[in-house]
Design brief:
This protein has three helices and seven strands. Strands 1, 2, 3, 4, 5, 6 and 7 form a seven-stranded antiparallel β-sheet that branches. It has 141 residues and is an alpha+beta fold.
Length: 141
Amino acid sequence: MLTLLLGGCATEPSAPRQSVQPGATAPAATPAMAEPAAPSVLIRGKSAAAIMSSIVKYRTQKGMKIVQRDKQRLVLSMPVPKSRPPAEARMIFSIAPAADGLLLSAQVFQIVQEKGRKPVTHDVTASLTDKLEAELAMYAK
């Protein structure tokens, strides 16, 4: 599944892209919490820590590295193979309390670093919605 997610990051997304210039010192300064349009799933009967542990276990087995982690937000990254200019796939998972459980949301970004330029961040969540919804459903089980 990661190959599919990252494969989508390595190609031009079919939906319009947003460009965000991250801070020079912190490329992790990609857009904050998940936007309302981000794929999400309501999870009942699991703690936020258990959900985050499941995500970390699955994503690190797929070769991603943790960039930032706290109780309600997890940022993972991985270089996009064979991309020119060099690119990085970054996934942001966020958990928010809901009326009858926890709402888990995910976003995917592609960060492109052209030589001599600042990194450019593209939100590719829209082009990967189906795959993200399937993965989020897996964490709800």
